[in-house]
Write a structure and sequence with these properties.
With 267 residues, this protein is an alpha+beta fold. It has helices at residues 37-52, 82-88, 93-108, 119-129, 135-147, 184-197, 206-230, 238-249, 258-266, and strands spanning 10-13, 17-22, 26-31, 60-66, 69-75, 80-81, 153-155, 164-167, 170-173, 180-182.
Length: 267
Amino acid sequence: MTSPPAGLRKIAEGRQAEIYLWGETGVLRLLRNHQGHEGLEREAAAMRAAAGAGVPVPRPGEVVEVEGRPGLVMERMEGTDLFSVVGRRPWKLRSVAILTGTLHARLNAIAAPTSLPPASEHLRGVAAHSPLVPDDLRAPTIETLNRLPAGDRLLHGDFHPGNIMSSPAGTAIIDWTAACRGEPAADFANTMVLGRVSPMPPGVSRIAGGIFVVARKLLLRYYERAYRDTTTADLSNLDSWVFVCAVARLNDGIPEERPALLRLIEE
């Protein structure tokens, strides 16, 4: 474990980073390892591109180094993620889904900074080298990618209601660690895959589980409709992108998702 830097108060943490208060209005997302400076620069560039186009994000600051560890300073966001909003107030499901789809389409319309990595290269690498991808899926996935356009739009890489914060001041899209450039349909497909395979929360009753399944389908339906109504992107290759994104998702190694992913890939 890493020890907290002197003089900083930790308020949250994840697998890759710790979050500390930074001044009066900011936070510092400090990586656990001593690598990743370039990744943080790309993350900040993606957020600046979104903010410059009027898409709500935490205002990014500078990339700093604290005790040899790189970190990104950004605006502190007070509020609740939209998944939690739906959990507490289920009647807001439709409005949350519509907001999610609308924001996502607006984001995907933005020209991506050239410093961001191409999504297609990452997906091709996963298909070729991940030990979690079955061998019989490698060639079909790469062949599909070779037929798809590379694209130059801003992609979030992990867009869902849990990465949208809501507060009295408005909404903001968070967690830009997977930001890249590519086809809007790829980012849209990735969210569709997440929505279809996300596992039921552990320990829920049969009745609660049934409600979860129905709510997930409704959320995805309203989200998809709002995205399609807002975007001007070409979605004619959506099924191909869903196939590619489902294969790539196997690389995350989430046991509860794997059966659903394999069924989706076979469709």
